[in-house]
Amino acid sequence: MQIGLNLSKEYWKEIPEALIQGEWESIRFHENSITRISQFPPVRAIYLLIIDLRSFSLSEPFSTIKNVLYVGSSTDLRKRFRDHIRGGKTDNLRYKVREHLDKNLNFWYKDVGKISQEQIFFYEETLMRLFGKNLNSMRAMSEENFVKNMEALKGQIIG
Fold first, then answer.
1. pLDDT at 31 over 80
2. Of the candidates 69, 66, 51, which has an alpha carbon nearest to the alpha carbon of residue 134?
C-alpha cells in the first residue's frame, strides 16, 4: 500500500457514490473533545482525522495544506470516538496525535446507514488506498482481494 496521497485516476474513479453523496459532519479533535461524545450518534460510520497545516503558522504553500492522518470505520461511532479520545493507550488516536491536540485537527464522519460490516471495511479500505495509511496500523487488504471485493460489492453498495 502506498504511503501518501494516491494519484492514480483508476482509484479515484472507483470511490463509492455513498461516500461522495450526502453530508459529512465534523467536530474539532482536541483536549476537551471527550466532553462532546454525546454529540455523536451511535451509528455505522466512516471517518477521517484531518489536520489543517495552517495552524502551524507556516507561509504559503504550506499553510494551504490539509492532510488525512487517519481513516477509520465503526459500527458505533459514539463508542469508537470515545475509544479514540481517551488517553493512556499508545495505540489510540489521541495518543498518536498528542503533540498536535492544540492544532487544527478535525474528525470528519459520515453515517453510512445499515450496511454490512464487509461494506464498511470496503469503504475504509477504499479511503486508505486514496489517502494512504499514515497513522493507521491495520493491515491492508491485498490488491487481489480488494479487486474481488470491489466487484462483488458493486451492485450491493447503497447510497
1. no
2. 69
Structural domain contains residue 4? no
* 123 closest CA partner among 72, 84, 78, 81: 72
pTM of the model: 0.76
Distance, CA of 72 to CA of 65 (rounded, Å): 21
Q: Where are the beta strands (DSSP E) in 41-129?
A: 45-52, 66-74, 104-111
- Rounded CA separation 105/69 (Å): 9
Q: 133: which DSSP letter?
A: -
Distance between CA 146 and CA 111 in Å, rounded? 22
Confirm whether 2 is domain-assigned.
Answer: no
- Domain hosting 41: range is 9-153
pLDDT digits (tens, 9 = 90+) for 89-107: 666 666 666 566 666 888 8
CB atoms within 10 A of CB 92: 15
